[in-house]
Write a structure and sequence with these properties.
Helix content is about 35%, strand content about 20%. With about 250 residues, it is of the alpha/beta class. The strands form two sheets. The protein has a seven-stranded parallel sheet with strand order 3-2-1-4-5-6-9. A two-stranded parallel ribbon has the order 7-8. Strand 5 (about 140-145), helix 6 (about 160-185) and strand 6 (about 190-195) form a beta-alpha-beta unit. Helix 1 crosses helix 7, helix 3 (about 65-75) runs parallel beside helix 4 (about 110-130) and helix 4 (about 110-130) packs parallel to helix 6 (about 160-185). The radius of gyration is 18 Å and the shape is globular. The model has no long low-confidence stretch (mean pLDDT about 90).
Length: about 250
């Protein structure tokens, strides 16, 4: 009889609001034996864990340049084929020097590069580097944070040029990856996930106009995503879903 593989979870961008909530969600899941949290910052103070949960948690600090990401991949190699849940939580909408563009005159090349680096390039590199870590017999569901504003069909307002474009580009990267993973790693399912407006630093400046019932806690969104991942069919396709599991137009 073949021994059952351990089921590990991996959260990239783990110190952010939603990343931290996903770490906590996976730590509380008895079916997950170990949680690997990857972030630029150290272990998040927002995560309160029991002694038992702390023993399940492995936190790895890294920068998000490719050589550093390769080092993380090397650290995870002993656990290849054991990851059942992977969440890629990178995302940049604004910073001290970047603000979403309201008109085309606001487009700035340096800001475009920074937004695309965080929202498109880094997730693409993780999926490239992790191919050999994820393929195997263990069914593996990978969710990457996309956004509804990355939908071309749903775009009726314009604006936010760099953020919209970077998320649309991410969706195309994920579609390409899903086709290739579907051929070469049939145990892997990819999801482009729209979390809705979540009460994190990313959405903080834009929350005033959001109805209270549409501003979600990170804990709620993490629970919703975990449920979606638990019920996902490993079908070799990319799914573009919102927080309620509803399909979004490409």
């Amino acid at each position: 009889m073949t021994a059952e593989l351990p089921n590990y979870a991996l959260v990239l961008g783990a110190s952010g609001g939603l990343g931290s909530a996903l770490v906590a969600q996976f730590l509380s899941d008895p079916s997950i034996a170990r949680v690997f949290a990857i972030s630029r910052a150290g272990e998040s103070d927002s995560i309160r864990v029991s002694v038992a949960e702390a023993n399940k948690l492995v936190w790895i600090k890294t920068e998000y340049d490719e050589p550093s990401m390769v080092e993380v991949t090397e650290q995870l190699k002993p656990h290849a084929g054991q990851f059942g849940r992977v969440c890629i939580c990178h995302g940049l909408l604004h910073s001290d020097t970047i603000w979403p563009e309201k008109r085309l005159e606001d487009i700035n090349a340096e800001n475009l590069h920074e937004i695309f680096q965080s929202n498109t390039v880094v997730p693409a590199l993780w999926l490239k580097l992790f191919f050999n870590l994820l393929k195997g017999k263990q069914p593996c569901v990978v969710a990457t944070l996309s956004a509804r504003v990355g939908s071309i069909g749903d775009n009726r307002m314009g604006g936010w040029h760099s953020y919209r474009a970077s998320k649309a580009a991410l969706n195309m990267v994920l579609k390409n990856m899903a086709i290739e993973y579907g051929r070469r790693a049939k145990n892997v399912k990819l999801i482009a996930f729209h979390p809705g407006t979540t009460d994190t630093s990313l959405s903080k400046p834009f929350q005033a106009s959001v109805p209270s019932d549409k501003l979600f806690t990170p804990t709620f969104v993490a629970s919703q995503l975990a449920g979606i991942m638990n019920n996902a069919d490993v079908d070799g396709q990319l799914s573009y879903l919102d927080w309620n599991g509803e399909m979004i137009s490409w």
